Structure formats: structure tokens, C-alpha cells
Amino acid sequence: MGQGDSALIEHEGQTMLIDAGPLDAGPTILSYLQNCGITNLDVMVSSHPHSDHIGGMVDVLNEIPVQLFVDNGATHTTPVYRDLEKVLVKKQIPYATAGWGDVIPFTDDVHIEVTHPDYLSDDMNEDSLALLLTYGDVTLFFPGDCEQCDATADVVKLAHHGSKGSASRGLLHNDYPQDVIISLGRNNDYHYPAPSTMNALTKAGISVHRTDLEGTIVLKTDGKRYWFV
Predict the structure, then answer these.
(1) What CATH number corresponds to the domain at position 21?
(2) 20 in a structural domain
(3) CA separation (Å) from 224 to 17, 65, 145, 178?
(4) Cβ contact 59:21 at 8 Å
(5) How are beta strands 110-116 and 130-135 bridged, if at all?
(6) C-alpha angle 50/55/56, rounded to 5°?
(7) Taking Cα atoms as reference points, which of 157, 168, 161 lies closest to residue 200?
(8) Strand 110-116 versus strand 95-97 pairing type
């Protein structure tokens, strides 16, 4: 997918796509969805309107029905964001703005709570929707690009592609998380992940899974334990 973020959640026939990578990621994401037999998305979430998170959304929206689109209410002036606005209106896709304390509808036994933001500032990265997913005893945290967001979770999709501030002290505490996923492009221009971030994760004894080295990362859970496949 390259230098960007995208995560697919599937459970009991329900599907949610969180972000859709950079501008050229659309065909790759569509191919993956089709290979998974997915012909409908119940929810599409935009953590924030930067192009490395919404870049592939227009391609997906043009090919796959989406029942609900959720974002944090922030807008942008970029062509990729304007194109996204146009296709949402054209296809009359139901839209909702989410913030702290909201719950994104999914299934009865998968709880997806918005833990951030409680208000919008002028920092798009820090204003990212942060989602805490709970299924049984297993928790996953998706903070978008919000480096200051933290939660107690088994698995964390690290903020901002493993940037210098992504492994904050608030995030690395007690025995959590056990695993982190870093979504980033190989040989990216930002030299992510930052050495200080990798050092902090290693020191904390956290297992690291990187898309630039492993490609698509698949995690499965039965609500009691989880494993990577």
C-alpha cells in the first residue's frame, strides 16, 4: 500500500475500513477487498483528511457500496479531499461526524469507541479519530496520526507511521501494548520508523510488525487470544 494507513475489520459478515492509504493505494486496496470476497462495506472511517489516509477512498467508493461514512468533521482544501466530498455527495452515502465518547456501530459483540478528539484544533494529525476496539478480552487501538493519543490495548496501530513522537510514555505503560503495527512505505522519504521509536519499543519488549517489511499484516482473534497469520 505504501506510505499511508489502512485497516480492514471483519466480523460475522460485517466490514469496516479505517482509512485508505495514499492516492495510489486505491487499486491495491480494491484488489485486497475483492480477494477477501468483500462486496460491501458497512462502515468507512476517515481518521483525518490527509491524503496518505484518504487517498484510495474515491476508488473504493466508486466500486464498492458503503453504508456509512464517518469522520471527525475536519475539512481540507486538497484536490483529493474535494474529490472525496464529491463522490460522497454523488452516491448519497450516509455521513456521520464522530468525537470523544461516541460509539461507531458495528456488531453487538465488537465495541468500537472513539477516544479522541473531544474538540478540533488546528493540528490535523492530533485531531485524528482514535478508535478503541474491544472484542471479548482483546483490545486494539487505532489512533490515526495522533501521537499524543493513548489507550490500554493489547495491540496498537502506531500513530503517524512510527514517527519520533509516536511511542509516547502514555502509550507504553505497564504490560501494554504487547504488539504494535507500524504502517509505512519501504524506503520512505521521512526515514520512518524513527530510530528513537524503535529503541523505545525494543526497550519495552514490544513485538513490532511493519508493513514495509512484511506487507499486509493480518491479525485474527477469538475474543480470548489473538494471533498474526
Answers:
(1) 3.60.15.10
(2) yes
(3) 23, 32, 28, 14
(4) no
(5) antiparallel
(6) 150
(7) 168
(8) unpaired
pLDDT 10s digits, 162-199? 999 888 777 787 678 999 999 999 988 888 999 999 99
What domain range includes position 216? 7-228
Residue 37 counted as domain residue: yes
Instruction: Classify each residue of 113-142 as buried b or exposed e, where b means 16 or more C-beta atoms within 10 Å of its C-beta.
Output: bbbbbeebeeebbbbbbbbbbbbeebbbbb
Q: Place 134 in a pLDDT band, splitting at 50, 70 and 90.
A: very high
Instruction: Return the C-alpha cell found at 130.
Output: 482514535
Q: Say which amino acid occupies 56.
A: G
Residue 224's Cβ-count burial label (10 Å; 0-12, 13-18, 19+) is: exposed
Number of domains the chain contains: 1
The pTM of this model reads 0.96
Alpha-carbon gap, residue 131 to 144, rounded angstroms = 8
Measured between alpha carbons, how far is 124 from 110 in angstroms, rounded to an integer?
28
For residue 80, tell me if it sits in a domain: yes
- The grid cell for 166 is 509516536
Residue with cell 510514555: 169
Asked whether residue 112 is assigned to any structural domain, the reply reads yes
What DSSP state is assigned to residue 108? T
